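User: I'm putting together a small comparison set for a docking exercise, and I want a reference complex before I start. The sequence is below, and the ligand is flavin mononucleotide. Could you produce the 3D structure with the ligand included, as structure tokens?
Assistant: Of course. I'll restate your input first, then give the structure tokens for the complex.
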Amino acid sequence: MKEYKVVIIVGSLRKGSYNKKLANELIKLAHPQIQFFFAEIGKLPLYNQDDDEQPSKVVLDFKQQIADADGVIFVTAEYNRSIPGVLKNALDQGSRPYGKNVWAQKPAGVIGTSPGAMGSALSQQHLRNVLTFLDMPILNQPEAFIQWNENIIDKQGNLLERTKVFLQKWLDAYSHFLKKQLN
Ligand SMILES: Cc1cc2nc3c(=O)[nH]c(=O)nc-3n(C[C@H](O)[C@H](O)[C@H](O)COP(=O)(O)O)c2cc1C
């Protein structure tokens, strides 16, 4: 049976990041035929178009990780009602030089969490705009705007059972979407 490689990109560098925790929980769920790996974005230099002719090794390695993946899941925080700069930088790095956009045609899933009432919804909406321009097919439903509070996690910070059920539904939908896009 075919195995699919899916890269996870977390839009937060914070050590105790809720989004990183969410990503780690996601990969603990049942996900037949999918092999997950993380791509780190915190060491990427700030994108500078002058570097297009000679990108650094860290940028080339990052692009290769994306190129090797069948799909991409973005688990993102919301900063000032938008995408954290570090994530936008990673998207820009992967999109250039012109004509060498590594994101194109990689089926994308977008999910995220925030303690704020909108659960990263506005960040995800902005992210979708960018991914569309980068030519990524995106899972539209179910949406996953997760407010990080006592309805989601227990006092010890572990996900509640109903949160896991919701995440499993989301992951099943992404997995179905990924396979449909690639076949
Ligand atoms: C610069 C900055 C801007 C933020 N803006 C928002 C915001 O627009 N909406 C929101 O819900 N939370 C906002 N927050 C709070 C974050 O959701 C919170 O810090 C969250 O823990 C970040 O995700 P993480 O835990 O994965 O790092 C902001 C935090 C920072 C540091």
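The beta strands are 4-11, 34-38, 71-76, 108-114, 145-147. The pocket of flavin mononucleotide is lined by residues 12, 14, 17-19, 77-81, 114-116, 118 (CB under 6 Å).
User: Thanks, that's exactly what I needed.
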